[in-house]
Amino acid sequence: MAGKITVLFALFAFIAFSGHFQIAAGSPAIATGYDAMEICIENCAQCKKMLGAWFEGPLCAESCIKFKGKLIPECEDFASISPFLNKL
Prior knowledge:
By secondary structure, this protein is mainly alpha-helical. It has helices spanning 2-18, 28-32, 36-51, 57-66, 78-81. α3 packs antiparallel against α4 (57-66).
């Protein structure tokens, strides 16, 4: 008898709460509505901190604005930051 009550309770709890939660709703970045330009400029600032005088931060930020955040620099990816590196 206890087994039937437990199964019924579990089934009831699942049905009662299933309408309140979304399972696998998507990636958190999309759920929060990320702004590509904001991420691009933040990455420029991070690269400037990491690379110092070797990295042209203002040029990177200008490209974020020009391309509306479509080309996001990754500090550890040489191909994405090569346009913003200088030879000192």
